[in-house]
Automatic annotation (TrEMBL):
UniProt cross-references to SUPFAM superfamilies, sorted A to Z: Chaperone J-domain
InterPro entries registered for this protein in UniProt: DnaJ_domain, DnaJ_domain_CS, J_dom_sf, Mito_ATP_Synthase-Asso
The name this protein goes by in its record: J domain-containing protein
Domain of life: Eukaryota
Coiled-coil ranges (or none): none
């Protein structure tokens, strides 16, 4: 006697259903992650440079974009977010060691396989900037930033302008002190003149004239 087992009978077994569901879920999850990594925007895209760009090209790109989106020049919310992303990208790519590790992480993401360990996924957040966007304004030194990225000439002009303003303020304060001193001296002179006049006896000359007539 020949026994034939139907596939439908096998599918009714609970462990079989659970196993197939788990495999299907893992395949879809892995494929979605691969798609996400392939479409993920990199720091090179943020700075609008090639992955083979030199350090000078990266610095020039940062200079150009920071001039365009800096909060002091552009007050929009979009510009603020853009400037934060630009700063984060530059923090990573400006340093040789962090850039090298970041490039390696991109290669890992692009070649990810279905059975790749989950520990590899931490690369997505490891190389973010250490600067917290919510805290950056508390210690952002615009004067130092300007000196580094816009050259010593502009920094020197700003410094001269500040020094000139300080000297002008000091001169104005000295002028005020001189006026106060002048008014004080003049007040003393007037006081002594009035006091002298009040002590003069005008009756003495008059009595002398009357005596001469007699």
């Amino acid at each position: 006697m020949r026994i034939v087992l139907s596939n439908r009978w096998i599918e009714k077994i609970p462990p079989y259903n659970a196993l197939m569901t788990s495999i299907a879920f893992r395949l879809v999850q892995s494929k979605c992650k691969s798609c996400a990594y392939s479409k993920m925007k990199t720091h090179y895209d943020t700075l609008e440079v090639s992955p083979n760009a030199t350090q000078n090209e990266i610095k020039s790109a940062y200079y150009k974009l920071s001039m365009l989106y800096h909060p002091d020049r552009n007050k929009s919310e979009f510009a603020n977010r853009k400037f934060q992303n630009i700063s984060q990208a530059y923090d990573v790519l400006n340093n040789y060691q962090t850039r090298k590790r970041y490039d390696r992480s991109i290669m890992v993401k692009q070649n990810i396989q279905e059975n790749i360990p989950k520990t590899t996924y931490v690369y997505a957040s490891v190389y973010k900037s250490k600067i917290d966007p919510t805290e950056k304004n508390k210690y952002f030194n615009f004067d130092e930033w300007t000196r580094q990225h816009y050259g010593e000439t502009l920094y020197r002009k700003k410094k001269e302008k500040f020094t000139k303003a300080s000297v002008t303020t000091s001169e104005n304060e000295n002028d005020k002190e001189s006026v106060i001193l002048y008014v004080a001296i003049l007040s003393l002179i007037i006081y002594f003149v009035l006091k002298f006049i009040s002590t003069v006896d005008y009756d003495v000359p008059k009595k002398k004239k009357e005596h001469d007539k007699v």
